[in-house]
Design a protein that fits this description.
nine-stranded antiparallel β-sheet; 8 helices; 31% strand; globular
């Protein structure tokens, strides 16, 4: 067994509700108290064998901590023998081990660790289970618990108070947004795939492709092979600026656009300020690299929760985020 510290990215988001005054911590705590059994909290994804649920939770130090899991029922795991001298490697299937209690085990697709304090939401996520899926599951769980009709939930990226003040004080003059032309969802089977296989298996997406489709004449994008860009390292750049001067409303629009770009995941952003200086993408979104204890690559939840709480308390104390 190997126990080491690994760098994990912490994401800080804010629960935003359609109904003003809603408190995610209170709502989620009540829902989890109502559904004490894991089966009651299990969300089955329509049309698939996939399921997701909050498998573990606890309240401590004024916050709610938990672990969300996703898996596909009945799926085997693919493995390969590590043999650097072999010319080819054969992929094998491994079924989940049988348990003495007779209950079936499942291989996990994704794990997400979370902390909720009022409407602050901190997550350490995996490639297969991200904040978007967590947001969807929370909405499903709260609706199932009742009392959520007519309400809606979104987990919005937070921006530090200092960065917000910097943009509003100096004003944005020019915004550069760089994004990949196309992207495809990762293959969860574990098999290596080529760009052409990705294009055949998954629907292509991407901020850059969406931009081009919006400006191309109707129907022309259907004749372009966007899948060829998967291995081509092609990017798109969107530039928004004013030449010599702008109106007060124009300045306000550009500032609000700069602040709103923290919600765009698949793009790199640079904001040139009218008063001099720049704000880069990693300053727009509130994230932090934490050194977390792991055992054989698996996160130690207690260490993760403790460091998440410390970061939140320090950020509120230092006025990086609002209480």
């Amino acid at each position: 067994m190997s126990q080491v510290n690994q760098k994990k990215k912490l994401w800080c988001k804010k629960a935003v509700f359609q109904n003003q005054g809603s408190d995610l911590q209170l709502l989620l705590t009540a829902a989890l108290a109502q559904f004490k059994k894991a089966g009651q909290r299990k969300e089955l994804i329509f049309g698939t064998n996939e399921a997701r649920l909050i498998s573990y939770f606890r309240e401590e130090k004024g916050a709610l901590y938990g672990i969300m899991l996703s898996y596909e029922k009945g799926r085997n795991q693919l493995i390969l023998p590590e043999d650097d001298e072999a010319e080819t490697l054969s992929v094998e299937q491994v079924a989940p081990p049988l348990a003495e209690d007779g209950k079936r085990r499942e291989f996990l697709d994704g794990v997400l660790y979370f902390l909720v304090h009022r409407n602050h939401v901190l997550t350490i996520q995996s490639s297969a289970l991200r904040s978007a899926q967590f947001e969807q599951h929370l909405a499903w769980l709260l609706e199932k618990a009742g009392g959520f009709k007519g309400n809606a939930l979104a987990l919005a990226d937070q921006i530090s108070s200092a960065t917000r003040e910097k943009i509003c004080k100096s004003h944005a003059k020019e915004i550069w947004i760089d994004a990949p032309l196309v992207s495809a969802q990762p293959d969860t089977s574990g098999m290596p795939v080529s760009a052409s296989q990705q294009a055949d298996t998954f629907a292509l997406s991407g901020v850059g492709m969406a931009w081009l489709k919006s400006v191309l004449p109707k129907g022309m994008s259907q004749h372009l092979k966007f899948e060829d860009a998967l291995d081509a390292n092609l990017e798109c750049t969107l530039r928004v600026r004013y030449n010599r001067s702008s109106t007060d409303k124009g300045h306000a629009l550009l500032d609000n656009l700069a602040l709103a770009l923290r919600h765009v995941d698949d793009a790199d952003t640079v904001i040139q300020l009218a008063g001099g200086g720049t704000v880069k993408g990693d300053e727009i979104k509130l994230t932090k690299d934490l050194s977390i204890q792991t055992l054989n690559g698996i996160i130690n939840p207690d260490d993760a929760f403790g460091k998440m709480h410390t970061w939140l308390a320090d950020s509120i104390r230092d006025k990086l985020i609002d209480p």
